[in-house]
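Researcher: First entry.
Model:
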Amino acid sequence: MPGEEGKPTLPRCWEVKQCGATECPLYENPGVACWLVDNTFCEGKNRPFENRFLMTCSRCPVYLEVRKRADGRRIADKAILATFDRMLNNLYSYHISIKETNRVLGQKIARLRSVQEISEAILGPYKLEQVLYMVLTALTAGEGFGFNRAFLFLVNNTGEFLTGKMAVGPCDHEEAMRIWGRFSKEKRPLKELMRTWDKTRLESKINKTVNLISFPLNSQDNVLVQSLMENRIINVPDVSSDKRAWPVAEGLKTDAFAVLPLVKDQRRIGVVVVDNFVTRVPIADEDLESIAPFTSFAAIAIHTAALNDQLRSQLKDLDKAHKRLRSQRQIIARSQQLAQMGRLSADLAHEIRNPMTLIGGFARLLVQKLPATGELHDKAQIIADEVSRLEQLLNDALKMTRDETPRYEPENINFIIMETLNLIASECEEKSIRVVKNLADDLPLMLLDRQKLKEVLINLLQNAIQSMPDGGTITVSSVHQDGNVQIAISDTGIGIKESEKEFIFNPFYTSSPGGTGLGLPLANRIVEAMSGNISMESKVGQGSTFRVTLPIRKAETEKVTPLANLPREA
């Protein structure tokens, strides 16, 4: 293109490209090579020469026109231009390659930074279930690694099986669209998603599915076991071509997946299985390699959480043991106090009983001598009655302090029951109380303390009589049951209030105006000394049932006393 003086000039770039950049330093300046000028308006300002020339100018029609004009006819010119072109093309290729490498490195750095943030998020004082959920959420969340589903298997306590523990993800396409749609609207940060654990997630369908799956660790042809044993990531792009994956694919209903081992210091923790069963996106090996650092952190977090759970459980057990020990110490201290009080009470009872007996004797003598219609007679009767009550209280108190070690002899329980019923027969008749007996005829001879058992039965029967001031029915039964003999005494009396049931075996607790509050505690103490127990059922207005259960200590001579040979009623 000739200039004003007829000399050749360079192409006018603003005309060739029709950029209209009138403020560009090259505008109306045709004698300058545009690619050698900095801060031109082509493809942006302030670009380095190498970048601008390789990526823009070397492909620009202005430069190509100048290059065409420079193509001389001499062999030397052609050789130099060819060499320059080749170097230029190589530089361009190198630049593109470096740019792509930088892009890939940037992605890997971003992924590693993400892995670090996610890994730090799961390292905390969390419970095992929380950590498992956080690991699986990181693998499936869009801001995390973005797999459709993740399944976690752990080595069981015996080290013999790889068992399914937890899973996160949809069961079908419909559920996937619903879940992903909700998450896209909420736009919650990944760390927040990872901390949204609650127990209800254990009831999800996919979680129940994985809980049913278990593989022996000695399986030689299982891809999960192989991945764990070899501490190696295994990608299974096509289940149909890999028999090792068939059991896993059948259980998880998938046709392509990858296995990530969880190993800490040669300690095999478990494996994670991931798939894209909804989107069908193939799992790339390079993506799996980038996850490897995360799985190492996950193994540490899971192992730590399991140890923390175990420590929490042991601390709870230790706390319970400490509370039991403290309670036992209190019981021992209380027992020592009661023992001292018991000895003091026994001494006082002995000191009081003798003068009390004299007072009672004189009062009863006055009752006999004084006219029955006189005022003094009535007062003497009151004294006699109160002295009798105090004597009974003293006797019961002395019984509570004495040694209740049983003296065992071969006895028949039914015989003892009949003897005891004879003792209260007249009192029952006076108070219109009917006695019903249901005694088993297959009871063996047992080693029993006859007098102490009679004392127990008398206390229970007196308790029943006192609960029926207007008459009623007492039912006494015996039965042979599970290596024990059980005696049941039921009444149709007023019953025991719910608020009083826990106190009835406490010494001196009574709801009866004339009671001492020692009958039931004494009976309970005697039965416990014979390795038995007393239980009670009662409803207000319907009556009560007391059951005495005693273990069968068989006498050397095995025989049953027929009911016909038992003592007759008085």
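Researcher: Second entry.
Model:
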Amino acid sequence: MAPVVDRFGRNRAGGHYRSWLLVLQPLLACVLAVIACLPDVRAQFGVFLLLAAVYILLSATQDVAADALAISSIRSDERGFANGVQVAGSYIGLIVGGGLTTVIYGWAGWFAALATLAVLTLLPTLLIAVSPEPPASAEARAARISVNTIWTVVRQRGAGIWMLLVVPITWMGLTAGYSLITPSLIDQGWSAEETATLTTLLAGVCGTAAALGTGVLIQRFGRERVLLVGCALAVIGMVAFLPVISGVASTVYIVAVTIVFFLGYTAGSIIVYSINMDYSRPGSAGSDYTTLASFAMLVSFGAGAVSLSVAGQLGYVSVFVGSSILYAIGAALTVWHQRRYRTQTLNHGAGRAVLPVESAAAGPESVVSTALSATAPDREERER
């Protein structure tokens, strides 16, 4: 759906991506309202699955438009703070969607829980309606978007190394450690409710504060320093989890270690999202960002599954230690990548560092060779 969102809606009054959001946000609320009105979900499970599929499609499309609108609305030096706000919002959504609605469901039933969620989903429409979208640049208006556009993001200088090497190593380290927190606590006798309270509610509150704080710190001290501190916190959190596995840690210790890990996890996530924004070009911002984020998500899903399998064979200790090493390597590669390619200075498609969207008619078969060639220093630098 990302190329569709980038291509259509361009000439509508009120802004390109804003027009999508003004339609999609109410539609999401309507689908939730219909689900809330199902008299018996078990008896109408097929209908429920169909509505859920529609909701997922609308939600994914809305996410593309929201990301693209954010990219087109903020300056490069604001991306760290903007992504801090975005991650904080996701944590708040986790708390409300996973916590508040569950409480309402237990207290007042299915209809009240889903109706509340529908109302909360509709509220952002008011903010979207009063927030103007910046006019599209000449480059964005001239861009020709097609399905092949999703493959061209790696043609930018350094983007191939970023997506195919740096991000996978970074996310494998973070996700492998994150995915073992819940099962390791359950193995130590924690109940599902206690574990959910720690990893959803408490971690969500701390993650919200950490996300906002990280955004401010990036503006003040820069990405590199914040990334290194975040990496240190995440690695400390994973290594400090080893006593938890042995069963000798107190509850206070477990809570403290989990919070430390989530602080580092949040900081690392914001840096990755900010660099993804750097590589998102005018006219194809939705496609570019979605491609980078989707690849990272696939890597994280795979890393989570593999880490659980490896933990079953070799134990938790080996996975926590391995994930700590991987994340440290990923953070070091990120620092190297930023120093070498300086993505924050990219002008989103203008100049020699970025290929224009319309220049790419090639499909996936040329991605690897293009990515490798795009990551090499440009001609002027070689001549020097």
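Model: Note on the second entry: The chain has two domains: 2-126, 150-375.
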